[in-house]
Amino acid sequence: MIPTETLADLASAPGLLSRDLDDLGIRLHDDGGTLRVWSGEATTVELVVFDDTDLDWITHTLPLEPVAGGVWSVSTPLLRPGTRYAVRVDGPHAERNTFNPGTLLVEPYSRGLISRGFDDWRSVVVEDAFDWGGVAKPGIRMDRTVIYEGHLKGLSKRHPQVPPALHGTYAGLAHPAMIEHFLSLGVTSIQLLPIHAFASEPRLLQHGLANYWGYNSVNFFTPHAPYATEESRRQGPEAILREFKGMVKLLHAAGLEVILDVVYNHTAEEGIGGPRTSLRGIDNGAYYRQQDDGVYIDVTGCGNSVNTAHDAAARLVLDSLRYWSQEMQIDGFRFDLAATLGRDAAHTFDPDHPLLRAIVDDPALADVKKIAEPWDVGMGGWQTGNFGPGWQEWNDRYRDRVRNFWLSDVDYARRASAPPVGIGGFATRLAGSANTFSAERGPLASVNFVTAHDGFTLRDLVSYDVKHNMGNAEQNRDGADTNRSFNHGAEGPTSDEGILATRRKAMRNILGTLLLSAGVPMLTAGDEFGRTQRGNNNAYCHDSPLTWLSWEHAPWQEDLFAHVQRLLFLRRENPALRPSHFAKLDEHTPSASVMEWYDAHGETMSIDRWTNPANRTLQYVATSTPEHEDVNRVLLMVHGNEQPVDVTLPALDAATQFVSLWSSEDERPGERGDVFDAGQVVPLAGTSMRLFGVR
């Protein structure tokens, strides 16, 4: 932890950083431990200690005493590494309270847990020691970051080179075979779906399903035990922690970052009447957003919303982030439904919310990446572009525009004999979304993605017009209805080679756009080799081969993988493709890219060309203004019609030749290297891209 004096000096959120809220949870010392629990409305708080082997056998109960600011405390030699414990809390009966002195509750700062069912848990005292062996965080610059989003279990569950005992585990993710895949692909940062301890909803369990994704947190400090190996689970929470840290250490030693998808916006306690496992029993009125009559204000769609307008709830989130950043050496966080975290006491989003400011200002979090999913389902919940400096954001506008350009626009053009829009909006996204993110934040504020865990996979995006979610036991009502997808002539699997070839090229166009755009690219695990979920665009409840990555690939899938490798190599080698700042007209801006736009005739784009729906062809020249690398210049051709076109290379100052680097027309990327002169005509196939180096 950083010194209390440093925290007290932070002026951005003095209530949130009150010293009364320091050292919550358990702190071990020579003669046992001290437990501190916050509950502003409690009348009694009790520590319950269990037998080491029989978790129904209560061996001791001790009262906690009120100290200051709603904090209750007890010091006892009973609190030692390995102790199983819970808390019980009583308080006044009122509209917003749900106290029950008989309920055994998870202590919110627990570093270890033992599950006895989705609503029955025991906290465990852990020592938390680990030898990092001098391995440090890679500290990858944002302009060089390439995020790979995947599910911890699904990534290694079926990998033939990972030993069966490690399949789907923390140790399995760090196996040399997995690390070799990440490094050979060219990604830098592994972003894991939630690994905080979570539970499946009773409704899913009744249908024989499970919450596979993990967006249903029980506790914000404990790693999910089922992701550990059987041996670590047998040894207990301390061994699970060691396995998790060992995974991080091995990935760091390979130069790979670990980013966690964190769910602080709601918990597994669901709505009133759901499980009372922790916060609801400790101080329901403070921890959850409610109306005066106790009805929950649910802006997450999950039954409850954590009330980060309250200092204790906000501090719980901040302390969790510090723990994972410092003790677990995590490199970054992707905040699920981050707009919820920024809602004030009136439940309105505030970009200067004390918690959002504290996360950016906290010295303990200075070296971590902070990525917001900038929306929730409440009023005013769509906030893309509105988070402040220090934040990156998932850019859904980028996702939608890229899908439209390569898929739904092409579908429309087939049916209407003309495209609905031109290329102007697409070009804005390609160049870093300056219409969404301020000049102060620059293009790196945008985390570009076209697919994610939530929605169609890339292969399904080009293979299905509609979702196919009947296996989710919700009569196909769940999942997005608007996908901007296009099946290219047949719904789902087909043997039509023409349709299959068009789909493959569409995938290459989308991947080329994603990996050559300004901003931070996020690749969804499995898209590099065309993984399918058979049209299910909401596979959150399937812990099965449907969602586990398959490592047996057809030749076309190996070709697609080679394209991703090539594109990521080109991104690394060409700083013009990854500017840190937006260029300013007639000014030299370090670490920016000066952009020039030409039409198919090699002439500067006119206003009419920008706005004409019939114009779907563009040449984009980016020239870097680097601080740390050599000057670099590239030209990207984009053609968004299905009819082929001849493109004339522009005449650029001091540039005489264009070297072919990559083309989406190729089934498998070649070395290319063909050299063209300014003014020479380059034929482009329908709906295709080509990248050139300029010299």
From TrEMBL:
Single GO term (MF): amylo-alpha-1,6-glucosidase activity
Residue intervals of the Glycosyl hydrolase family 13 catalytic domain: 161-571
NCBIfam families: glgX_debranch (TIGR02100)
Xref: Pfam families: CBM_48
Protein name: Glycogen operon protein
Region entry Disordered, spans: 471-496
Lineage, uppermost ranks: Bacteria, Bacillati, Actinomycetota, Actinomycetes, Micrococcales
Any GO BP: glycogen catabolic process
Keywords tagged on the record: Glycosidase, Hydrolase
KW DNA-binding (keyword) present: no
InterPro entries: GH (IPR017853), GH13_cat_dom (IPR006047), GlgX_Isoamylase_N_E_set (IPR044505), Glyco_hydro_13_N (IPR004193), Glyco_hydro_b (IPR013780), Glycogen_debranch_GlgX (IPR011837), Ig-like_fold (IPR013783), Ig_E-set (IPR014756)
Family classification: Belongs to the glycosyl hydrolase 13 family.
